[in-house]
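Input chain follows. Return structure tokens only.
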Amino acid sequence: MNRPKTWLLLSILAAWVISRFQGAINPYYYDILITIGINIILGVSLNLVTGYTGQFSLGHAGFMSVGAYASAMVTLSVGAHARGESLIFIGALLVGGLSAALAGLLVGGPSLRLKGDYLAIVTLGFAEIIRVVFENVEAVGAARGLSIPVHTTDFFWTFLSVALTIYVVVFLVHSTYGRGFLTVRDDEVAAEAMGINATKYKVLAFVVAAFFAGIAGGLYAHFKQFIHPEGFGYLRSVDIVVIVILGGMGNTPGVIIAAVLLTILPEGLRALGSWSALPEAIRPLIQNRMILYSLLLIALMLLRPQGLFSTGGRLTKWLKRGKGAAA
């Protein structure tokens, strides 16, 4: 991206224009579009930790839940007013993001001194602790869940957040800090030997990723209008990790495409399962679409372990070739 600010402004403008016509979109497809936006934010933010810094985290859904509950509590505490609804929503999102970032700092400080499987276990444990806490605290609905009476997440706010997330991550990766992220990912021991504080860069990436996960959680809460701790469990974290791995770790465009594909694929299998011309022999497999979805993921991991759109893939090479020709 030679002019990231230009792309950011164009993306925001496009989101605003499309949002003017969101009332004409089928509610089912509109739900999928918003889910795609939330998954892009989650995938791109986790890619900063896993893809660019080389730290394997299984706690991203925990940060998402912190953002969801914190933003929902702000909305419920302040209330929604006709004039200030947008300002309250923005404030709620920021509180959710900052709460998740604080949680990322508290977890990342001690745990990011660990590596590999040990870090994955610690982050997974954190996510489970948060889930259990929300299940037992009456102030946030406990096991009953929490209802949010206002519906403020729309196409514009969702894809504005998507554009800002991509812009910040791309800008950060191509900055001096980004060189530090890549150095730590490639060889942490060599980085430490050169005087680079690896823990500092890992914690920074962790906090930024947690902030945007919190923003995604706030968008999710104010779109679904109901949140429950079970919605932020272990499987949710795995879904986000799968998006990053299939998109190609350290490849932001690939992660964006993977988020879109993995959001649409289960719904496409749902539609295929109701197709009348489907042969009876394979109908049960298609109708149990999550089984087929899992088999497809296993096949992709076996056939393309580096990700669908890795930095050495044909798509990336084609884009680089086109960029060079244009230059």
